[in-house]
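Entry 14. Structure prediction run on the chain below.
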Amino acid sequence: MRHLNKTLLTLASLTLGFFSGVSPTLGMTLFQGTLNSTEQSLIWQSPFTGYIDLSTTLDTVNNLTFQILLDGEDILGNLDINSTNQTNGQASEETSWDSYLKVKQGSIIEFLVTPKDPSQSYNFNVETNISTEAGLVFLSTRTNSSFDHVGFFDGSKIYESSPAYTQPCYWDIFAQDCLAVNSQSGVQASHTLGTFLHLSSDPNNSPIQNREIVRFSDIPYVSSNQVELMLAYIQSQENRPYISSDVNINPVQQKGYDFRRFSGIGLIERAAEQAGIFNGQGFIFNHLELIHVNGTHLASQVPWECLSVFPTTIECRSDYITYAYYTYLYRTQQFNTLDTLHWLEIPTLLEIPTLSSGFLHYLLNHYFSNNSDTLQGLFQNVEFLLTDPLGRHLGYTKEFGLFEEIPNAFYDRGEGKQHFFIPERLEGQYVIDFFGLCNAEAVAILGDSSNGSLIFGCQETPQERIDYWRAIVSGRSDGNSNKVSAPEPSSLLSLLVLGAVFMGTGQQFFQRHNERRF
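Output returned:
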């Protein structure tokens, strides 16, 4: 067999075009190449996950086989190229092929022409074009977590709300050049797609670990008119100040409803609301944007059962929540003495935002009813493992490893912070075990759309719960598919409503992990 000279071609050029009826946009050509020798193949490697459009035209020649390989698999089924109208071996007709493909970051598409008779040579020409369309571009700087940041790609440039970019220029992986980017903080359109995907001046090194483009034409409930309205709103807010998405910045503030400042995710979600997506709720239903905290547990003062199953018994709430809340108020100097606290009723403490780029990405790919019974958790500096009514597990600890057994659940972890979301909660018991509540600034956040509880303070994980998880892990390693039974109902309660949040002593709460921090 002949040796094939494989050439990796870089991405190139912008071409005008409309995508799936959504306008105004630019359709971006990622790759253009020509193949006219059986000594060579064309190779394109995708720098992101997402859908692409692939268009190929070839002058057909008898006795040639044309292949398009996606990660080594022939997606044309070894198409034989045969022509009945030839002159001196040269075909007078063309064959064209268009496709809509899902690629992963790092996927390789190879275009290959081989003669059936290697001793013969033929004249032919293959032209191919790979393009993408306008959409939302998601970035992550961490390998074990979801996305940190999101931008609006109009087919030409990226619109975003971001802190100031500090490097003198940023490498464009398509143009193969280092381009200047606006150094001002706020709503801007400074990046090309190529610089945004790389975010580094060094051509060979990038802080970005994961990249994905979700095209608007692939979101079934978004119309072309709504995309135009989103773009128009974002453009009307250019140069407005950036605001972080820390946990003490509520969704109203992040989305610019008060002082017209925007977090990265807040800008995108506000534009979706302005465009009327889901009747003005945007991509993320309003009740999923935060957890209402109306109960607090000081872990050192409550039985483990009051922490691990929700809602707690009346005894747990009446005996322990009041004490924890009063203690919190005293420690944060909202009252001078504990003597006056018994006159107070316990109000809703906080509304903790769950807005994040990773959560938005998840919701774009998972559909469920607005009335679904949901469950969420946010955690800092404490590990957790969750068991659902069917005995399936979710969470991570250093000792017991990663569990992702609950279908359609969202789970994001990284840098000491974790977030889970279960869209359609089952009837029955959900049991959560905490590992590390005695760590500095440890906090657990558990809640649904209307109720939540704050858990902080030190309590060691009971030995019986550690033994339970050791048995689970042992069953895994032994190949035993039988699940270890959940704790007896006599010691636990049915889970109807969840929620939790952390407040430090007069300082910021833990920072949310949904913003670019590089």
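The longest strand covers residues 49-59.
Filed with the rest of this week's runs.
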